[in-house]
């Protein structure tokens, strides 16, 4: 195992172990507090141990599902706190079902789970603050060096300027090589003029380099293949700039893609008819269940539109959208704009759009306007998770101006997507380019676990009123 991978695994393992101990202690402390305050009856050791064990397992499984143990978790402290709340809430729900409805014999006290959950949230938030912000665990970041200081390398300087963008690595510097476009290259980062020859190995050892990122503008005749081969054999990771950006930022740098990278890279799985049928069944079932719970919100939308614009005002708005394999379908939404919003033709929706009505702002903020699209899910036009479908008028233009844009239509469009979580607003060609980077990442890495992560984070977006 390379030094970089070893440190990543070590970080994750230490986090899991430390937090398992903290969760178990909180569960035990809650029982002790209840004994002192409400004088509950003593609990058998077996029942107590079973409760503690289940709480630890379910909390950490939920934390794993929301990415809290990802070695490359790119999140602010506020985002980490929200994920902790979500994971503890999931564990609380599962424990309530188990101890309240199924195995009532292991229930301790009605106040036990709420108190335990509160203690866990407080303790984990405090622990993450000191471990992430102050380095309490003493774990350093992966140290990397970039070969190349030209235009391709500059994407790191342009896209990853903030500390939060570099949480998983420490950038030692950039090594310029012949063929780099220095005019459009690195401007403000550390430039290291070190020869990539037999002495390069010593430089890597002295600086404890764990990973080398290849970001040169011209490879043929400029890359020292023998030296890099030797470094890889000795356990130092060698990664292409495209793979590095994909891993660290959760997006694919569309403007830097070359065909051989797509051909040889992992992902972009072939279609499986059994999996597709199963996905449709799950999506249709979820759509039906959500309809049962959200009809009061839909009624609120109807009343709101009628109150603001009169009972004769149209409730729904429909548009043609591009779906799977470029097929056109009709999408339905609660109308959030004025009826004359597109009297001059199709226009990009913008932030603080003056065409949006007062009730429309509320519907958009909490995604209520999207609820009629459950019908599209039931019909099979859409899924819950996938790239957001775009209008044909815009797609024709985007295909002409953005490379690989049509590849996003290789999967079924969705109500929520990876791009919406990471780049939540798009009102221009440039914004569409940025969103495509995340859409292609989803197309490449689509999986049930990624869908669950997107679904959980989308619920967070809706609850905190971040919808667009």
Describe, in short, the structure shown.
The protein has 468 residues and is an alpha/beta fold.
Give the oligomer, counting copies of the same chain as homo and different chains as hetero.
single chain
Strand order of the largest sheet: 2-1-3-4
Work out the radius of gyration. Answer: 26 Å
In terms of per-residue confidence, which ranges show pLDDT below 50 for 5 or more consecutive residues? 1-5
Classify the beta-strand content into a percent band: 5-15%
Number of domains: 3
Number of strands: 8
What characterizes the major β-sheet? 4 strands, parallel
- Average pLDDT rating: 82
Describe this structure as you would to a colleague.
The chain has helices spanning 3-37, 45-65, 77-102, 112-133, 154-159, 200-206, 225-233, 241-249, 259-264, 273-309, 358-365, 374-379, 392-401, 418-422, 429-445, 448-463; strands at 142-147, 169-175, 211-214, 237-240, 316-322, 328-334, 383-385, 414-416. The chain is α/β, with parallel strands linked by helices and 468 residues long. It has three domains: 3-133, no CATH class; 142-249, Rossmann fold (3-Layer(aba) Sandwich); 273-463, no CATH class. The strands form three sheets. Strands 2-1-3-4 form a four-stranded parallel β-sheet. A two-stranded antiparallel ribbon has the order 5-6. Strand 3, helix 7 and strand 4 form a beta-alpha-beta unit. This is TIGR03013 family XrtA/PEP-CTERM system glycosyltransferase. It is found in: Membrane.
